[in-house]
Amino acid sequence: MPDRAVDRIRTGFLGPTGTWAEEALLACVKCGSGEKVALPSVYDVIAAVAAGDVDEGIVPMENAIEGSVSATLDVLAFEFDNVHIIREIVYPIRHRLIMRKSMEFGDVKRIISHPHAHAQCRKFLRESLPHAEVVAANSTADAVRMVSETDEAWAAIGSAVAAERYGCIAMDIDIEDYADNQTRFVLLSTSPAAQDQDGSYKTSIVCTIAHDQPGSLLQILQEFAHRYVNLTKIESRPSKKGLGDYVFFIDMEGRKDDPQVASALKCLECKLSRVKLLGSYPAG
Amino acid sequence: MPDRAVDRIRTGFLGPTGTWAEEALLACVKCGSGEKVALPSVYDVIAAVAAGDVDEGIVPMENAIEGSVSATLDVLAFEFDNVHIIREIVYPIRHRLIMRKSMEFGDVKRIISHPHAHAQCRKFLRESLPHAEVVAANSTADAVRMVSETDEAWAAIGSAVAAERYGCIAMDIDIEDYADNQTRFVLLSTSPAAQDQDGSYKTSIVCTIAHDQPGSLLQILQEFAHRYVNLTKIESRPSKKGLGDYVFFIDMEGRKDDPQVASALKCLECKLSRVKLLGSYPAG
Q1: Arch. (CATH architecture) of A6-93+181-189
Q2: Per-residue 3-state assignment (H helix, E strand, C coil) for chain A
Q3: B201-282 CATH
Q4: Which chain A residues are Cβ-neighbours of B118 within 8 angstroms?
Q5: ipTM
């Protein structure tokens, strides 16, 4: 496989400029250094990768406080079959309360952000801004942009970088409900990741289990355990076919072609109605 | 244990009047027929039960499309230790687009609802109302109330009952992304459920697994499998201690004192750093 011409790669991210996704992308020394393309939603980023409108795309998978990003998982599992995870990027998240000009918490009428950012700051909002209207923006940066363009008593939740970029003030306190907040982003492409890069890899799959097989998850885990394949994450999501019917997202250590991983995946495919490989990629 | 004086029980629900939680509560023939107390958030409902301000409370646990209600799971797992699940209530959800007066989709400037309702209608919003501002309300009914009180071109996502209650128009189409939408609610109390009622029971626990024990989930599942205890749900959530560190919510068939269930729970408590019983209650 030829080297990627990294300076010509177009990478889609949740925009506008100033989102955590863009910060994570800029901090990733192994990501493409070409054009960054701001897109309006996680769905649009994944769809643009699938359609070839961009070469790569970065989306959030999981946050240390609020958990998985269901919009990302559902689109990867159910909507596109030609998109692969090619890299994992773990980035620290320090949310700030952002205003156009300084005001008291009690005067804030509206608090704008992405719903996942609101959820990461649930306690702060409950205790410090109980009367503010909670308004969803497409991204944290879009929230900051909205605040920068109004004279209303609005505040946003976003990054210090976004505050600076839109000429706003970031309060100097972390407002997440728990310390050590991080988000795990993934880079997507229609070309699977090369399997010959240095360092450790992860492999991600999504498994569909038939409704009337309550022991299936145990069987899945046993396939990995007796081959000493370490799982780093297991997450259930609704299959959308009714309550009690789930798909399981599983991340494991190793490359898809490692003999033990390959053997486990092959046996899973025999047992289950559907096993979809989401990617085998360098770990963050 | 004496019979509950069901006509004197005060039950908290996510208000105002017209929420899905209230509808589920009114449809539950075995729930208390006393006073219904509207509260402003899921957190407030659980806190009111814990503080004894109400006798019981109803909260959403899980939706067939969007999955678990993280605000409920996190509060039950991490914030109160004296609240027990005493009953499960499964209720069909048919979201409607609700307006004060009829207008074209293209004219809707703002679409208000609870974030979980927005997420259940993600495709509909993307395709039919891409330009509307998405605004979070504390509940679907509160969204309908806000629409009923304005001349602005706002619409809400909520129930047909809420539309009628607030004098609004409900469009006659289901706007969920998938059919057969249901939400599983639970009834909470500081007194555990009596274990002698007829019918099938479920038992719910939350387990904390040490970060460096990747095989722990397998061990947990084996405790249940070799005793033939059927699990109806397994859900991971962040422990809030950092990426890769999870707690597991597990629902199983049976009563906590059934010999096989009791034996499995006892062995789990020996193995894990923490096992919290959320309740053992009649299944919905």
Answers
A1: 3-Layer(aba) Sandwich (3.40)
A2: CCCCCHHHCCEEEECCCCCHHHHHHHHCCCCCCCCEEEECCHHHHHHHHHHCCCCEEEEEEEECCCEECHHHHHHHHHCCCCCEEEEEEEEECCCEEEECCCCCHHHCCEEEECHHHHHHCHHHHHHHCCCCEEEECCCHHHHHHHHHCCCCCEEEEECHHHHHHCCCEECCCCCCCCCCCEEEEEEEECCCCCCCCCCCEEEEEEEECCCCCCCHHHHHHHHHHCCCCCEEEEEEEECCCCCCCEEEEEEEECCCCCHHHHHHHHHHHHHCCEEEEEEEEECC
A3: 3.30.70.260
A4: 115, 136
A5: 0.84
